[in-house]
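Notes to self after the Tuesday call (sharing in case useful).
The group wants a holo model before anyone commits to mutagenesis around the pocket. I volunteered. Ligand is protoporphyrin IX containing FE. Logging inputs and output together so the record is complete.
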Amino acid sequence: MAADQKQQNADTDWATTIASELRDATRALHHRLDHSPRLAPLVRPGLTLSEYGKCLQALYAINHPIELRIAEYISAHALPIDYEAHRRIDDLAADLQFLGLPLPAPAWSGPLIDSPGALTGCFYVLAGSTLGGRVIFRQLQAKLAVDAQNGAKFFAGHGEQTMAKWQAFWAFAAAVCPAGQLPAARESAAGLFDHFLQHLEASPQ
Ligand code: HEM
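Result:
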């Protein structure tokens, strides 16, 4: 086997290990999150436009500072990824504008990202949410008068590119997160889910 093929296989194996560690660290927390009173209506039959708008506002207030902290860390360390192409806050803002709702103030200052592990854990949470977002998007389209261009850009995520972006995230994670950083990655992913739960609970009813 050629040397670069071997290296590529080793990187893929390492990405798979990080993926399973992070999934394992956050599975129970994700379950609590998708059953939380603020988000659960998104996948219930009677979803209203007003409930949808409140979800979007709560997510905007939580996600905006997270994206900023991730972008800052990547730029400060000149890491090899085009993070702009992964950001979704502008889509979230466009959906709120479509619904005629104001952009809320940030709910917090965002996570402390002070290591490659912390970066990987936080990026994982936002990147992974695009997968569930596709499921939610299909429900939104079926139930509300919104689509990928009008009112549901955020949950439409990266559209057809969603899995490609998810793979690009894992290639990046494998490159920047060495084995010694796994505990920090697990801790930061779980910690960020916890923050989501707390801030969603505190979001305006
Ligand atoms: C009602 C709300 C939500 C629902 C119904 C939901 C549903 C899902 C589903 C079905 C998947 C698996 C998709 C697949 O494997 O193709 C998924 C993955 C994921 N979601 Fe959610 N999600 C929700 C909210 C969120 C939020 C708010 C976050 C982030 C804070 C999040 C983070 C993740 C992550 C990180 C993964 C990837 C898990 C992995 O494979 O490692 N989800 N979600």
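Two things stood out.
The chain has seven helices and no strands.
Helices lie at 3-34, 49-76, 89-98, 116-143, 153-156, 162-176, 182-202.
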